[in-house]
Amino acid sequence: METIQAIYDFLQTRTWLQVNDPEEQIVFLAAGEYNENYLITVEEIYGTARHVFRINHGSQLGLANQIEYEFAVLRALARSGVTPRPYYCEPDPGFDELGNGVLLMEYLPGRPLDYAKDWREAASIFAAVHAQPVDDRLIPQPDPVRDIARECEGLIGRYPDHPMTEARDRLLRYRERVLETADEFQTLTADDKPVMANTEVNSHNFLIDDETGRGWLVDWEKCVVTSRFQDLGHFLVPTTTLWKTDFEFGREGRRDFVAAYLELCRAKAGSGMDLETALRCTEIMERTILLRAISWCYMAHYEYTQDGRALRNEDTFARIEQYLDRMAWFFESKT
């Protein structure tokens, strides 16, 4: 209730929205590791309108201006038609409950993505996003295999007193194997233009509206300018699909998804990469994203077992523990 009151008090100082009854018009929507979302319903001249009020509490990218960065990403993607439209941003809202900044954006209806029946819509969303002109103000990641491996080294070594030393050693060995594919990936993608990639494409970051058949990709806090295969690899890797569901892509499912994506890209931009090359690029990125996922779990396990974490999700902690327990299986699945 304190946060809802803070949102209401903040909006009284702005002209963003007219809220008269915070208990009725402002409700909690969802929270992740670094952000909280609230649904605000207001009456406007054309009828009832719904908006998302997003509160930032930290940055996976290590940015001091995280909420402004995400706002810039959403503005850059506004013409894609598959992302929420941003309205306002305030990096210094002046209320402790409003964290490190807030933004107001479009509310989009829908349910989480069902991998078995919605994978074609996901391919269409990726094709639309990746066709957008790149905003040069966004963080570049031109060498994603090495860049992610470097990020993982930081995650693994962030807490020197981490007690899970065996897990650390296994992660470092797998990291060396991933780095062996970096030159091959750079050669295969040398003529492929960089895109704005979400890099966190789990099923709950998609919204599918069954009434209209439309789909959207939300939660753009970790967008970078990089290879499009980072999104494809992240979408297909089992650490993503198993995070919220019990689904795994088989060999033919992977092939069908990448083929559908390439076909949609060709329809938008003409000729492109052949399927076998695209599959190899996706495979390399799957292995790399797997390293990042387990490295983050290793780091987050330490944070979750310490006092003072601002946001704590017990379902997330349970999944972190499960992934660390199954580390060997994950690595063997991508050998």
Give a verbal description of the structure.
The chain is of the alpha+beta class and 335 residues long. It folds into two domains: 2-106, 2-Layer Sandwich (Phosphorylase Kinase, domain 1), CATH 3.30.200.20; 115-333, Aminoglycoside 3'-phosphotransferase, Chain: A, domain 2. The protein is built from 13 helices and nine strands. Keywords: Transferase. Residues 27-262 form the Aminoglycoside phosphotransferase domain.
Task: Output the keywords.
Phosphorylase Kinase, domain 1, 13 helices, 2 domains, Aminoglycoside 3'-phosphotransferase, Chain: A, domain 2, 335 residues, single chain, alpha+beta, 9 strands, five-stranded antiparallel beta sheet, two-stranded antiparallel sheet
Mean of pLDDT: 94
How many β-strand stretches? 9
Q: Which class of the largest domain in CATH terms?
A: Alpha Beta
Order of helices and strands: HHEEEHEEHHHHEEEEHHHHHH
Summarize the amount of helix as a percent range.
40-55%
Rg calc:
20 Å
Count helical runs: 13
**Coarse shape:** globular
CATH topological fold name of the largest domain: Aminoglycoside 3'-phosphotransferase, Chain: A, domain 2
| Number of structural domains | 2
CATH superfamily of the largest domain: Aminoglycoside phosphotransferase (APH), C-terminal lobe
Largest sheet: 5 strands, antiparallel
The proportion of strand residues reads: 5-15%
CATH architecture annotation name of the largest domain: Alpha-Beta Complex
Low-pLDDT stretches are none
The class by helix and strand makeup works out as alpha+beta
Strand order of the largest sheet: 1-2-3-5-4
